[in-house]
Amino acid sequence: MELSEPAESVSVIHCDAATICPDGTTCCLSPYGVWYCCPFSMGQCCRDGIHCCRHGYHCDSTSTHCLR
Question: Where are the transmembrane segments (predicted)?
């Protein structure tokens, strides 16, 4: 019996059945109905569907700045 090296375990986040983001990111839905990966873990997706903020911050009314 041959033993093979175990495959490296890579954690991913499933946004939906077809889209995944790397661990440590957050799934956000764009205005075009397409998922994108916010580069922050537990990030806050802005209403514009384009920007996001790191955990502990929220988007301003223009969705272009992150406020504490």
Answer: none
